[in-house]
């Protein structure tokens, strides 16, 4: 399988002062969220948990989800009054769909894990321009990490630059998947790759940014699930592809975030094609 050369998708420049302010604010909010998630992990099971607000009774909504999103919205409204907010729990502010910049927040990505006390859940926040995320943070309390990136400024973990991932190959590597389609796991195994389904889209994509996995395959997603982590991944050199193999900021019909050296192989596996 011929590797896909990495040709960065063209994005518009963003005001450097805005990037700096947004990155600082997002980092503060991520630290706040990490402290709350760490302190409450697994403690809401059987308490005031509302599963009736979602169509799937396994798709939990907790007091922590609501509290963190309200806190995020209060801070952003005070510091960025012209940027509307889109959040998982309280929806989109008026005009968010047409705004040149919007904030996108998932207060607890991987809520089912959080409820069960499994420390594989995250807080995700992104400042999204019309051509994709310009600033992104992902708080990973289970590993004590705050990941942050801004367009053109690289990717950091707890303030330290993350070195570029080694050149990737599919065989012997890990692929993260969320809601994988029938047959995908078997096709990946046939290609001598391991598949991990861990219950957080944000952390799945972050593993690609870190070089721990060569790809993250999302059969379906919401913008708030992925926006923060996509900024990390693209700053780390990953491609964001749709099912057709073309780059897009938020592709319809699922998403593949992948190291460029194995993009063609993983895309073929995802589409159910032979290598």
Describe the structure.
With 275 residues, the protein is of the alpha+beta class. The protein contains 7 helices and 13 strands. Helix 5 packs parallel to helix 6. The longest helix has 25 residues.
The number of domains is 2
Biggest sheet character: 8 strands, mixed
Beta content comes to: 15-25%
The helix content is 25-40%
CATH topology of the largest domain: Fructose-1,6-Bisphosphatase, Chain A, domain 1
The pLDDT mean sits at 90
Instruction: Report the strand count.
Output: 13
Gyration radius from CA atoms, angstroms? 18 Å
- The CATH architecture designation of the largest domain is 2-Layer Sandwich
Biggest sheet: strand arrangement? 2-1-3-4-5-6-7-8
Q: Give the helices and strands as they follow along the chain.
A: HHEEEHEEEEEEHEHEHEEH
Structural class estimated from helices and strands: alpha+beta
Which shape, going by the Cα principal axes? globular
Total number of helices: 7
Q: Please give the oligomerization state of what you see.
A: single chain
Q: CATH class of the largest domain, please?
A: Alpha Beta
Low-pLDDT stretches are 1-6
Give the CA-CA distance, first to last residue.
Answer: 6 Å
Assigned CATH superfamily of the largest domain? Fructose-1,6-Bisphosphatase, subunit A, domain 1
């Amino acid at each position: 399988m011929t590797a896909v050369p990495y040709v960065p998708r063209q994005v518009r420049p963003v005001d450097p002062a805005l990037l700096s302010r947004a990155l600082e604010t997002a980092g503060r909010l991520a630290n706040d969220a990490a402290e709350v998630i760490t302190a409450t992990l697994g403690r809401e099971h059987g308490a005031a948990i509302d599963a009736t607000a979602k169509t799937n009774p396994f798709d939990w909504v907790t007091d922590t989800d609501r509290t963190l999103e309200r806190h995020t919205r209060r801070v952003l409204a005070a510091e960025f009054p012209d940027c509307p907010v889109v959040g998982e729990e309280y929806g989109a502010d008026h005009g968010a769909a047409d705004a040149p910049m919007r904030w996108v927040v998932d207060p607890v990505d991987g809520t089912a894990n959080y409820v069960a006390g499994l420390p594989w859940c995250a807080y995700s926040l992104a400042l999204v321009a019309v051509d994709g995320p310009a600033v992104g943070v992902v708080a990973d309390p289970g590993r004590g990490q705050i990941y942050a990136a801004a367009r053109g400024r690289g990717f950091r973990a707890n303030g330290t630059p993350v070195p570029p991932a080694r050149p990737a190959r599919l065989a012997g590597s890990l692929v993260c998947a969320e809601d994988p389609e029938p047959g995908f796991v078997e096709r990946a195994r046939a290609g001598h790759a391991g598949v991990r389904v861990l219950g957080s889209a944000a952390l799945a994509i972050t593993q690609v940014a870190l070089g721990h996995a060569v790809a993250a395959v999302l059969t379906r997603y919401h913008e708030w699930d992925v926006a923060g982590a996509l900024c990390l991944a693209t700053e780390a050199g990953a491609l964001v592809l749709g099912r057709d193999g073309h780059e897009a900021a938020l592709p319809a019909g699922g998403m593949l975030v992948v190291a460029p050296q194995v993009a063609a192989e993983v895309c073929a596996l995802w589409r159910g094609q032979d290598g």
